[in-house]
Amino acid sequence: MKFRDIMSLSTRVFKNRPLRTFLTILGVSVGIGTVMFLVSLGYGLQAAILSKITSADSLLSLDVGPGVSNLVELTPSNVDDIKKIDGVSEVARLASMSSQINMGSSTADSMVYAVDASFFRLNGVAPDSGRSFSADGVYETVISSAIAKLFNVPTEGIVGQEIEVVLYLTTVGSDGMETVQTVKENGRYKVVGVISDDNTPFIYLPLQTLNGVDLTKYNQLKVKVAKSESLVGISQKIVEKGFLVSSLSDTIDQANKIFGIIQIILFSFGFVALLVSAIGMFNTMTIALLEKTNEIGIMRSLGMSSRDIMTIFLMESSIMGFLGGIGGIIVGWLAGFIINFSFNMLANNLGGKSMQLFYTPWNFVFLVVIFSGVVGFLTGVYPSWRASKLNPLDALRYK
Length: 399
Known about the structure:
2 domains; 399 residues; alpha+beta
């Protein structure tokens, strides 16, 4: 039997039973759409979160901290040794200390992070308002939004303001006693950027502007390697020196594994809806078998083979499954668009920032279409097998 004839017989149901066929396809579309909606939500959250903490430079960077023992500290000489390791292209330092900030007649306590200008780039962090330091030796600062709240200044309005900084340095003497040294920086720092953090008051200062501070140790280093293949080797060399080392790439790998589990869970929830729609499609094909029993008897009497009968039923179920997949993509995309639009509108009204909650890779869309066709094919296997095994005489007598 020609393929054109099989296709014509397979698609008759769209003319003879349009409402039932439409509802069957709609059921599959809802199931596929639910799968796509939930999995796209998982992909979207993963992309939104990881995009906030990753950059090309940060993925090539190692976080280096002091060793477990107090004897292994990040002193300037140790930093020079790390810079000399083959494959290290850049090192950014960070030193933290307590401080008092003055803006006009207002005063607030804050934590100071004195860093090299490249620290922001290597750390994958960018101010939400304004910018980071333009150079190492300039009197500029990046603050948290909590600082703006302490001074009762809007986040947008504090950019461009100037602040004075008084540092409190804790030193340990030879007798083991701690002393606090107060150092007032002569220059006034211009606020050039704000990082969204309403809970912790902190400021970033260029390390090279702390002229009155004799730093003997640092709290953290960002070590950038030239090639990603060197991450493990350089990390081991630094660990051998007694320092603690971690990398953002390790964190990203762990996060991707966690999101992979989340996506599997979300897919499982969507699969339940798809299973319900598949049962409905199986019921439709079974009813179609009963309605076409006489037709099957006639076609078999005219010489049609049982294989052709099976092909007609499988083609019919596969087409409905395929169309259900196309409809599911539309349903899932529309649901995601509506939810994302509503969420961003609410966030903007409440003073938050908009974000893309849903993301669907094209390979996943292709997989959904193929999967829906396979589901349609599988639901038609048993009815088509029964149809092909019908006795022509019994089928003609069936009422």
